[in-house]
Design a protein that fits this description.
By secondary structure, this protein is an all-beta fold. The chain contains no helices and nine strands. The protein has a five-stranded antiparallel sheet with strand order 3-2-5-6-9, with no helix packed on it. Strands 1, 4, 7 and 8 form a four-stranded mixed sheet that branches. It is globular and about 40 Å long.
């Protein structure tokens, strides 16, 4: 009997208002409040208007994004038995 691992993921598109940078750094970490416990798992740089996908196992995560202009985004997501969609909408701080 052959066992196949199910590759799940978190994916989405990047949008940003006027005044934000043209590129965004998107981070995937464990869903922990305490910074020291929030293990960074993956990150990627994505142009505004582009998309991203992180492959994960089931669990609870945080998607964070920031850019050089001070714009940011944060969302909590749970991956269960199918891909999770998180559209990153940057906010100017």
């Amino acid at each position: 009997m052959t066992s196949h691992a199910l590759a799940l993921g978190i994916f989405g598109h990047i949008s940003a208002p006027e005044g934000c940078a043209k590129k965004v750094m998107v981070w995937l970490s464990l869903d922990k409040e305490e910074y020291q416990e929030r293990l960074l798992l993956m990150h990627t740089e994505v142009p505004v208007g582009g998309s991203y996908k992180f492959y994960t196992k089931p669990g609870q995560y945080q998607i964070r994004a920031n850019d050089e202009a001070g714009c940011e985004f944060m969302s909590r997501i749970e991956v269960k038995d199918k891909d999770a969609e998180v559209h990153v909408r940057m906010v100017k701080k």
